[in-house]
Every structure is written in structure tokens, then in C-alpha cells.
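Contributing new records

If you add data, match the layout below exactly. Sequence lines come first and carry their own label; structure lines follow with theirs. Keep one chain per record. Anything else will be rejected by the validation script.
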Amino acid sequence: MNMEDHDQKRYYFGLSFGMNTSAFKIRPSAAFTMDDSIKSIQPGWGPGFHIGLMGSLRLSKFIDLRFVPKIAFAEKRLTATMRSNTEETNTIESIYTQLPLQLKFKSDRMQNFRFYGLMGGRFDYDLSSNARSRRSNELIRVKPIDISAEIGFGLEFYYPNFMIAPEIKISQGFLNTHFPDNTIYLSNMVDRMNTRMITFSIQIQG
């Protein structure tokens, strides 16, 4: 087997990079139900990518504690459809500092292969949040801080000098990221916005 002593390490480090897609979950406000000019507000998924570091601490034979600080670029879309059937789309671009803390549950190793699942929480800070800087063309404003729950799974492939682990995660934000602004018409139509994200990552570990 490759890297036979790897599973006995107390801790190890690596790199993480990959792609993501994200969108808002919208809850309309009471004003939306009484408004006769907007037909719908539809969230749209947008692309993104991330790069970061990874540190793992071995808790037991089958459980690791993992910390994966990273920078993530993400894009989300909102489309407002008017009663006149005209549409107005706003793209919300974010640059997140993401700080996830995860428990990794590992299967038995099968030669140079292993399956694992993971779950945990993540703190996000949006460095490009427009909550404090009003832009003339925006339809909505967002708060910079969010806390999410994550769940996912991955596969580990052992090579002579390193290990590669592709993984998929989904996350759901708990905090309302909508920043109310009475000067923006669409903002009055939204009560709550939560962020959803799907991430595909490649971990390279030594």
C-alpha cells in the first residue's frame, strides 16, 4: 500500500481548491403580497471558485477534526419580473473569507482507496459586501456575515508521495443576509435571504 504510515499521523496539512455554485433562498415580505407591480422575485445560481489550506487532526481511527480556511469567489443572481413582463436581473458578487470546522468520518482503507463523509459548520465574511456602500445599479443589499451548516462526502486516493481527495459539499446559511434599505424598491419586497452553496473540491495532502 502507498503511504502506509499516513493514517498514524497525529496531524497533517494540505491544499484545497475547486469550484462552487450558489444562490439565495428568498422569503418575500408582506409588502410583496400587496404590491401590484412585481410578479415574482426569482433567485438564480451563479458560478464561483475557491482556494485554501487544510489542516486535519486525528481524533480516532475513523474520525478527524478538519479546519479548511479559504478564499471563495461566488456569484448569485436575483431576477425581478414585473407585471408588464419586463425583467430586471441583479448579480451579487461575493469574495468570502470562509472558516469551516468539520468532522470527517472515514471508512476502512481499501488498499489505496477510502470513502469518507463529513459534517460541520462554517463562518463566512463577505469582503465585497455592499451593505455599507450603496451602488446605483443594485436591486438588493447584503450583510457581510453568515453562518452555515455543511454536509458532504469524498474519496481518498493514495499515491506514493501524496493523496488526492475529490469531494462534494452542500451548505445552508442560517443567518438572514438581507440588508433592509427603504431607498431600494425591491428591498422592501424581501423579508429574508439565506445562502445555499454546492462545492466541488480537490484536496491534495502530504
